[in-house]
Known about the structure:
Elements: E1 2-4, H1 7-14, E2 20-25, H2 30-45, E3 51-56, H3 61-66, E4 74-79, E5 82-88, H4 93-103
Parallel strand pairs: 1-3, 2-3
Antiparallel strand pairs: 2-4, 4-5
Amino acid sequence: MTTALTASSFAATIAGDKPVLVDFWAPWCGPCRMVGPVVDKLGADLAGQVIVAKVNVDDEPELAGQFDVQSIPTLILFKDGKPVAKTVGFQGEAALRAFVTGNA
């Protein structure tokens, strides 16, 4: 399952005891629309192990700025409230799964 995050829910979500993968995206972004289903599948496959969430950068520009998101899609993995790994651009399922499991 994938959770939509806002500025008000972001801090509490990443502060939990599970790793959190956050997809910074926008609806007009072609590569974001391509990686979206991959992120959703990982959310379903890794449910209970990793929280998967999305931030629409058009709706939440301050969050994008806070984490230096300059290109989208940008995926950041958080542990204990801190970013531990970041990848930019389209990632296929195998690469994204390896990114998450290798850093979680």
